## 1
Amino acid sequence: MTPVVFVHGFMGGSRQWQGQADSAAGYEVISLDLPGFGENAHCDALDSIAGYAEWSLDELSTRGVERFNLIGHSMGGMVVQEMVARAPERILRLVLYGTGATGILPGRFETICTSKRRALADGPQATARRIAATWFLERENAAGYEGCAAIAEQCSLPTMLNGLDAMENWSGVERLENIGTRTLVIWGDHDRTYPWCQTEQLWQSIPNANLLVMPECAHAAHLEKPWLFNSVLKDFFSI
């Protein structure tokens, strides 16, 4: 069966997908760590979404993975949109999860400019824990919070600033109507990072896109309601 490639978001990493890897039935899971993040925190981070997309495609080619299903979360959703634009023939199914097509993130819990300023003032560790809390409906009290915060704490200050620059300077709006890959858009109805306007834009602009709204979830819906998230992925990738 076609492997499924997971691309994490800002301050994320491959370990956040362990619940999806453990539940995978009949397909191989490949979880990437973008340069500067997760298990690749020792690498220099890139400062463009296009750069992360090229790196991801090259990394998969190096691993001998030429055809795959693809899921991108948050900033990773921007990266996978770039991957589809560059190599549509390699991607069979696409999932855009908790993401959008506008990098300035209208309606985010705080502006990207504010995140940069606070990261410089507070330092990377405090920033990692503060922002990770916004990903969950129950914030620091959520079961998955500490695990995500630990992954986020691996990011250096330059990685955080580069990631924020990469998002702020990116837009995929003009290419949405050209996405021919079968696509599923997933959104938690209490997402503090990507409001409904971003999700609706993806759903309405990508031809024949399907939509899943996960109730009582924030930005990390795959950790808040993994049973629902995993069952939908299994269904979508088996079609």
## 2
Amino acid sequence: MRPDPVVEGETDPYAIAYTPFEAKRVVWSPLAFYTQPPVGKGDHAWMRKPLPENVFTAEEQQCLATAIYFEARGESRKGQAAVAQVILNRVRNPAFPNTVCGVVYQNADQRNRCQFSFVCDGIRDVIRSRSSWQRARDVAMAVTSGETFLPEVGSATHYFASYVRPRWAGAMQKMASIGQHQFFRTRGGGWK
């Protein structure tokens, strides 16, 4: 009989430690929901806020993978992970919706006012590459679970493609350039 890592709402560290490992099988415990990314110098205090449990649901992972696919499918895994990290940073940040789908589709009904260009560009979103879609799904879960974290992106909540220059860029602190994207966070701590 396999030990139960949760007994009456409390986690049992011994049960978690002695749960048999099975490759390619992900087992979630309540501890997974409370993992926090490493908070670096200058990162915002809200980075310590755990992600809500719902980020692991099929619907939320679908929204995250969709954003990765349409915003960064031509990027390396690192570039895709950086986009995913920005989205999850927004979920933690009190200035944005607290769900992945809420973040991705914020202002979707307002042309050129959405947060991610694929959402309101008027182009029908069709997944044409199964391998790119699977890769986006894998990256989405790796970033959500904390398996992948990019310290150089840190608490960035904004990015743009290198071929555009949004007005807000000068008001923010540049964190990194990865592939065709540049990543930014608010200056001076932002939301606390």
